[in-house]
# Entry
Amino acid sequence: MTTHHFAIADMHVQLSFAVSKYNSLRLLPSILPFQCEADTPYPDLFSLTIDDTLPPRPREERERIRDFDSGNGVTVVDHLKSGGYQFIIRDLKGYDCCLLQSNEDFSECRCALNGNHDMRCYGLNNALMLCMAFAGSFHSILLIHASLVRHRGRGYAFIAKSGTGKSTQVSNWLRYIPDCDLMNDDNPIVRVVGDETFIYGSPWSGKTPCYRNVKAPLGAITRIDRAEKNSVERLVPVEAFASLLPSCSSMKWDSKIYDGICSTVARVVETTGIYTLHCLPDRESAEVCRATIAQPFD
# Structure
């Protein structure tokens, strides 16, 4: 067994690989910027053991919850009578890439990989995301679907349905707004620590390879809404909660995990401006947006 340690969102994650000619950190190059020493001062979040000899749980020990279509494949979810979960992660062709099993709070997880190199990369990457999202729900952590830019030391996240324009808005900030850099382009991590809310880069960044171990106070979260005129509105708390929650990875059927995520969303809404940007994909939209959402920190 070979063990590696990582600091993700200032939390300690441990990956252990059973001896295998197929499985190693080569499957996860995006996680390398997050590698750290074993004696990291950060709290433990979860451990994941990769061992291809892991068998599926017998049918009588599990109950089917649902098949979840992620857009990149289907994940089959079973609840274990022991309190944990079993996931079968399938790619777009329907091939089984990963068998993942967890305990109740996702602090201890195991997986078996299957197939060629690309299938194993896909399976392990998705298993790690599931562990991060659901273990994080017990630690005031959210894995959100967003593009993230840093401006003058604060992180500004843009949320929207795929193809609606969040990456375009971030690109316009990078092009037209001074003092900006890209932190992540698909799955940043939000964490509430005491009375403060931070946002982090992550090992997952969609089609844009931006895997940065970076952190910033969260400045604002803005939902993109295409329109014929550029304008920004700050949402009242109820609207803000309803706007942010769908962008968070969650499991509504698990009350402990879902309640943890909802509680963290509520704390983010209490401490952070949540906005809607009605916009065209142009320079003015970035300038109008920045003038409003960054104004409290100017």
The radius of gyration is 19 Å.
